[in-house]
Amino acid sequence: MAKHIQDTTTLHNGVRMPWLGLGVWKVEEGAGLVDAVKAAVKQGYRSIDTAAVYGNEKSVGQAIREVIAETGIAREDLFITSKVWNSDQGYESTLAAYETSLNKLGLDYLDLYLVHWPVKGKYEETWRALETLYNEKRVKAIGVSNFHVHHFETLLKNATIKPMVNQVEFHPQLAQQELLNYCKEQNIQMEAWSPLAQGQLLNDPILQEIADKYGKTTAQVILRWDLQHGVITIPKSVNEQRIIENASLFDFELSQEDVARIDGLNQNLRVGPDPDNFNF
After folding, report:
1. Residue of 54, 123, 134, 182 marked active site
2. Is 123 among the catalytic positions?
3. Which is the CATH superfamily of the domain at 8-263?
4. What's the family (predicted)?
């Protein structure tokens, strides 16, 4: 289990991915984002998660270049993820979308490229494009986001490469046990977006009680719960204090009893769209 902010898990193709990353969803381009990414890297984060649709790849790329220049950290020591948006899905358009993301980021390669949503009738062709990028060694690892078990079953009928990651909404009120079990059986690494349910869980009395017991915040308890379930977590923040706080997960461990209590909060409740029913 992760004992340090730079501890990694090994994906099924041998690539190592940090257990903790910084998410930048809904963060606008600009100096605030550049500063947040740089602060995170200086605090020890090595993984940054963006996406084409976030509209902030340029600022993420600028931050990466600046922090490399300022700290001497090697590009190879950073783990950068982006995602192909729904309107770009399909074989040729996905290949083009990858180039666009690389250009905006100012990078030669991505560490992880994901299919953002399982767009019906398109995600298989999109996956074929990701396999091409991977086979051409343009990207270190490829995966999906927001896939249910049945999406994998469809994809794997014709795929030649199994996705390495599935990034999904995952938090104590949406514990996704069936999906988590499936991903573990298939050796697909699960990753949590909105691990704090967009802040909705921070005042939960049970989580507060557990947090008090460990001398931690509710956010830290939730993120630690992710890690103890073997799920990578990418909390979003532009606040440097929060970025530091979110990384303070490696000096305590939840008891099995407390993990089970948090598991008991599950209500299959989503803060985001259902992958079986989205219209964008």
Report:
1. 54
2. no
3. NADP-dependent oxidoreductase domain (3.20.20.100)
4. Belongs to the aldo/keto reductase family.
